[in-house]
Amino acid sequence: MDGAESSERSPWDGSTPTRAELNEAVETATRKLESIIARFGDENGERRKPYYFEALIKEALQAQRLSKYLMGLYEEKERTAHA
User: Left, alpha or beta for 57 (phi > 0: left; psi -120 to 50: alpha)?
Assistant: First the structure.
């Protein structure tokens, strides 16, 4: 996997998340929202609005995909280094 392959999808391509990706992102976003509210408050209810939770879900999904993509690059590098 090198960045030059045109068939390779980046973690930022905007593709529809799988159900598993979405479930994991919602769990991560929920924990993060609870932590933010516990530490900093809900900002007069602003942090409890749907747009805020949606942004946290998008952030979690992007982080998941980036992590998966980078692990793939690392694994490919390890395979070729030991071949």
Answer: alpha
Q: Quick check: is 45 in a domain?
A: yes
Residue 69 included in any domain: yes
Q: Tell me how far CA of residue 5 lies from CA of 1, 2, 9, 68, 76, in angstroms.
A: 7, 6, 9, 17, 14
For residue 6, the 8-state DSSP code is: T
CA distance 49 to 25: 17
Domain that holds residue 57: 19-81
Q: What is the pLDDT along the chain (83 residues), one digit of tens a residue?
A: 444 443 445 555 678 999 999 999 999 999 999 999 999 999 999 999 999 999 999 999 999 999 999 999 999 999 998 87
Give me the number of domains the chain comprises.
1
